[in-house]
Give the backbone structure.
Amino acid sequence: MKAIWYDRFGAEPTIREVPTPHIHADAVLIKVGATGICGSDRYGWHGHDPDISLPHVPGHEFAGAIHQVGSAVSRWQKGARVTVPFIQACGRCQYCKDDQQQVCLHQQQAGFTQWGSFAEFVEVRHANENLIALPATMSYSEACLLGCRFGTAYHALLHQADLKAGQWLAIFGCGGLGLAAIMIAKALGAKVLAFDPRQSAQDFARSLGADAFSDLSAYTESQILETTTHGVHVSMDAFGDGQILAKSGRILRNKGKHLQVGLLKPSEETLLKMDRLVGGELEIIGSHGIPAHRYAAMLDFIDHHQLNLSRLIDSEVDLESSIDHFIRPSNQVAGITVIHPG
Ligand SMILES: [Zn+2]
Ligand SMILES: [Zn+2]
């Protein structure tokens, strides 16, 4: 099969013929219909993810059709249109039994712990536990976003931060994750302040209903504290920068929650004034993907609010032209790039 492949971190990937995966008994092989390029793919390519061993095929948010079914898979058949959370849970550990599969002890992640979806085919482990059937009306391009960016934002805001209608949310970083978070928060009835230095990202954030700023200056800080009546309820790092937690501390109201979703480089430190954490009883909450059992409610949420996920997509490309989008993301472009490998 054709795949995007690299054998050194940071070196330009190539498109080459690689062996199609021989699947495990608990797995299915999916013919990839669409797969999104996510910041975590670049994070891994730069060598920041210890789960990746070389050579590697990246790609972790995808949707497609089942091409082959492992001998221990009972619930799925060839031809089904499916997607999967980027965390493929084991289904057996205590966290899985407690319905917290997103922190499974034995999780597999296509694109990190094994080869991923920037390829014609990808193996999905523990298929009985992790696959989700797609609604007939949902395209592969829209569905692939559920596995990481949209699903991660949905789980973070609804289940981890418990964001409510009428509350204020600050979002730092308006890439795919931040833009998906704006779409979800507005559907919930929250009020959104978005921060991104790129003009195109600010324009995109405004088109989804957020008030957008380039950064948190002393002036915007005092404006925000006044407009929100003493600060936002939730502040989300959707980019991954050590400075953002400190910025959250400046604009969170007492009892406010900082939501950490973006990944920091392993060497990066973060600074929060601990007296602010103590005096305001702030909370710092991590959020990691979304478990498969939450998809039914998420698909209902999308349907109920008539969310158009294709609004988050900037461009759709084939495998041949995807490498540039992967390694040289344009500062001028906001929104998600989707690859169609077939
Ligand atoms: Zn587990
Ligand atoms: Zn991702």
